[in-house]
């Protein structure tokens, strides 16, 4: 179905899907109970997220008059969906007018395109709640948390919404709130700025009177490096000193504490050398009194509290060490939220440095768990908990909130994630390309290549076809489609795509020439049809008479063919190029090739002499400077100094037959062995025929994106 974020109202009140608002893809989180977010995540379509949310029908107070400026502003955002300012103007207009229907329409469309704007999810939920639709407000929060699960503010807003709408006198309501808290700390509890969520969790458990649950909350947050770690520790110490230990600790820990205390007391008695009989008969300090009341002495309680605090102090010190490692990185992050305004390079570098460090920490922790650390090293298990793959993932997700519009971070993320999970990598590509980077063609093509490597050919084809619809006219996308079909052995499809490109770009000579060259090469190399390839290039030349690349590729085709069958085709191509409106440098190049070909394969010396005279005349017509560059300057001491004395012997003019014209002067270090020095001269200057082959010069054809 169409995405909720893409809906608009028709005149009848029904929903329609306007052009320009395709349903994007966001991170999906499996739900526990009534909409909470769990740890596992993967890509999900916005349509699936929106399926649970259906706005009430436009009736009664909903069917108010559309704001005066709404249609004008709506047209502006549909014409240019990337104009963020127009969107904010539209949303401000809806908010001021207070029209529920228009506000829903605008917010749905806006959040489908900009799902990381958590503030607008909160406004949407508040809008529904003020209108009396508490269930709809809840559903909006769930949608928002699926789109931006690392938003501490949105989690707190969701929880406060439930606290204000549920009947807390019912046990199921308490269980539901606790479940949502659990989902929240799993999703975002490791965030550096998650302190407010942990405090809210502890305060809520305090209201429920569950002292053991409060202890558990503080113990958990003490394993997470957060900004206010010290505050949590102080609250934990106050909590542990304010109540009886048996009411604060779970039964397992309390029994362990008792055993530890007894062991310490026993050891103390042994050190005092008291009689063994006295140890058996006398009650230990701190043991339950003879009355069986189950109470410990005040001294015993104090000692047991010291043991409890000592164990927490160790954990606190370990957590503090992790906080200190991250503090400078976190301090360098100035804008942790999403905005379309560009970040400066210093901010981008700060994210890169932080990510690189966290990845290195995770790799080090992995080596510890694999046994490379000192066995029994204190705190190694805790370090493995903190510096883990999950922390890297959370940091990447945090980064992509602030840097969602930067391809470099999505690329960094997929490169990290691919060795860990192909499915999560696929979901990441989908989220990036379909929501945040719809016009970054290089990343879409990278996604298609990923799918092709995994054998998902149909998906790779779909990605490239969708990209071509979004950004028509990009030669590199069409050539990537051609390459995909060719690799799959679909030569007919590949040829059809090239022919289609040639036909579609007849009014664009530059692109027409590019695709004509590609089609001709395809026909010649793969279809073994030189005549068809020749006709393609000749037709392209008629459209682009001044494109020297077309003549050069036609010349290569002629040179690659059977010279006994079509030996005259080479000189015909050269003559055609020399009479074309191309640059003087290109004409010199073609003339040289024709001269070299006549020297190598000509059948009469008269034709060779004629071609040489024409070549010399061409050089003369272009002026003395170019002729000097052509023929060399033996009097130039700099050039003479480059001669490699052992490379060959310079042929004397007296060695040349009297009927032959004098060859060009030798080039320093060249081989003078063949064809009166023409071959070596040409090879030295231009590197052979391969040097002017323009088949792989793609970039100059690509229009700017």
Beta percentage is: under 5%
* Average pLDDT metric: 78
What would the principal axes of the Cα set say about the shape? elongated
> How many beta-strand elements?
4
CATH topology of one domain, which one? Serine Threonine Protein Phosphatase 5, Tetratricopeptide repeat
CATH superfamily of one domain: Tetratricopeptide repeat domain
Q: Can you tell me the CATH class of one domain?
A: Mainly Alpha
Give the neighbour order of strands across the main sheet.
1-2
Assign a percent range to the helix content: 55-70%
| N/C terminus separation | 32 Å
What class would the helix/strand composition place it in? mainly alpha
CATH architecture of one domain: Alpha Horseshoe
| Rg, nearest Å | 39 Å
| DSSP helical segment count | 34
Classify the oligomer: single chain
Low-confidence stretches: 1-61, 277-293, 373-385, 624-705
Largest sheet: 2 strands, antiparallel
Keywords for this structure?
disordered N terminus; two-stranded antiparallel sheet; single chain; 705 residues; mainly alpha; elongated; Serine Threonine Protein Phosphatase 5, Tetratricopeptide repeat; disordered C terminus; two-stranded antiparallel ribbon
